[in-house]
Structure formats: structure tokens, C-alpha cells
Specification:
With 247 residues, this protein is α/β, with parallel strands linked by helices. The chain has helices at 4-9, 11-14, 20-29, 41-51, 84-95, 128-141, 170-173, 183-187, 191-209; strands at residues 31-35, 55-60, 100-105, 120-123, 145-151, 154-160, 217-221, 227-230. Bound molecules: zinc ion (ZN).
């Protein structure tokens, strides 16, 4: 169960009926991988740590640059030039000392042997290549993948469980040759929009830890607040989760 200190720390969250003691215990036991410590990854990591998710592994290979600061709210001018993932891990450790936080300054492809330990994978990069790498792992090893993205004022959250007959994988919806990874650099992005998608992503992760995966795809315009939530159909000839996919 929870210690007296944990009961006090999370006392407000424990009152939420969807969480309760059992849910909070599940959060404390959960192992979550977050790839990308940018404008979305920062709030995902912050809110999962502050919600009591017990084990977070953060992955990024970038250094902190000036143009990161308006969106990546855990970073400051004093961090310029430092390893982004190291800075985020240091700040979260100060804020949430009970959380086991691992910082991996590198590429996700180099960590493939460690991915089996996680309950859920979160793609918070702006790289379609990374998203599809994680999607293939998700399908082959039956680990849920939450894909998060934001361009302009719009964001998308896609919960992929492509190994299931009733759930699409990321490849069923997002082509591998998509040019979205150039989206933010070319089209720009509003700072609070990425923050909103990150915070909503943290809620989706907490739901998933409790076995509640919700709708496959949510598209939200954070400016107008127009939103659509839809189920995504499996592509019969999907190269990742379809019958012709490599085993
Ligand atoms: Zn698929």
C-alpha cells in the first residue's frame, strides 16, 4: 500500500474516483518511457512525475538551445549548451525526489534492448522516423504506444495498440514517408499548444496505466478548442500490423 507520506502527498489526487488508492499504487509501480524532451516531452515528464508515476526513463540527444526555451518550460537560460535530458532529469529529481528518473542522452535505437521493461512508450519527438521505430516495437512486443504531436495551434494524440485485432497501429494512420517531422520548423508552433498536448498526453498515460485507453485518435485545435475523437480502422495491408507484416 502507500506510506503515510505518500498518502499525504497525493491526498487530493486520491479523492478522484478514477484513481483512488488502487490507482495511485498502480501509478507508483508504473514504468514509462518518454522519447523527446521538447515542448511536449517537458510537460509529459513533469506531470507524470508529479502525479506519482514511479519510474520514468527520459530519452533525448539534443543540447539546450535558445529557441527551445519558450516551449520547453523546465529549461532556463542557465542551461544553454547542456544536455537537455540531463537538465530535465535534474529538475524533476529536485521536484519529485521519490521518483526513479533515468536520463538517456542518446538515440532510442540504441536502447532497443531495454524497451521490454516499460508499461507504455511515449513518442514526444517531432520525428516520424522515431515514431515508426517505436510503433514497430509496440506491435511486435505488445507495449502500448502514445504518439503526441503539435503544429501551429493543433495537436494530435494517438494511442496505438496495433497487435490487437480491434486496434490500429501508428502505421495504419500515419504514413512512414510523412514529412511531418519538418512541421514545427517550417510551420511554427504556439508555445501553450505544445504544453496543452503534453499535459493531455500525461492524462492519457495515467489512464492507460489503469487499463483505460480511450479513443484511438484525438485531434485538438487549442486555439478554437474544436476537437474530434475518432477510432482508426486497421489497414488490411499495413506493413507493420497487417497479415503481410514481417513476424
Ligand atoms: Zn498497422
Amino acid at each position: 500500500m502507500l506510506s503515510d507520506q505518500q498518502l499525504f502527498r497525493f491526498s487530493r489526487q486520491l479523492l478522484v474516483p478514477q484513481v483512488d488508492l488502487i490507482g495511485q499504487r498502480a501509478f507508483l509501480d508504473a514504468k514509462v518511457l518518454i522519447v523527446g524532451m521538447g515542448g511536449i516531452g517537458n510537460p509529459v515528464a513533469l506531470y507524470l512525475a508529479s502525479s506519482g508515476v514511479g519510474h520514468l526513463t527520459l530519452v533525448d540527444y539534443d543540447q539546450v538551445e535558445l529557441h527551445n526555451l519558450p516551449r520547453q518550460v523546465l529549461l532556463t537560460d542557465a542551461d544553454l549548451g547542456r544536455s537537455k535530458v540531463t537538465v530535465v532529469a535534474e529538475k524533476l529529481t529536485l521536484q519529485c525526489p521519490d521518483v526513479d528518473i533515468q536520463a538517456c542522452d542518446g538515440r532510442i535505437e540504441d536502447l532497443i534492448d531495454t524497451l521490454g521493461q516499460f508499461d507504455i512508450l511515449v513518442d514526444a519527438t517531432d520525428s516520424v522516423t522515431v515514431a515508426h521505430f517505436l510503433n514497430r516495437y509496440s506491435v511486435q512486443h505488445h507495449v502500448p504506444l502514445l504518439y503526441l504531436s503539435a503544429i501551429g495551434t493543433e495537436g494530435r494524440l494517438f494511442m496505438a495498440r496495433g497487435w490487437r485485432d480491434d486496434s490500429a497501429c501508428l502505421g495504419c494512420w500515419l504514413p512512414e514517408l510523412s514529412d511531418q517531422n519538418e512541421g514545427c520548423e517550417r510551420l511554427g508552433v504556439l508555445s501553450p499548444s505544445v504544453g496543452t498536448i503534453g499535459v493531455l498526453g500525461a492524462v492519457q498515460v495515467l489512464r492507460a496505466v489503469l487499463g483505460d485507453y480511450g479513443t484511438d485518435l484525438v485531434c485538438l485545435d487549442t486555439w478554437s478548442l474544436n476537437q474530434i475523437s475518432v477510432s482508426v480502422s486497421c489497414l488490411a495491408d499495413c506493413r507493420v500490423c497487417g497479415p503481410s507484416a514481417p513476424g
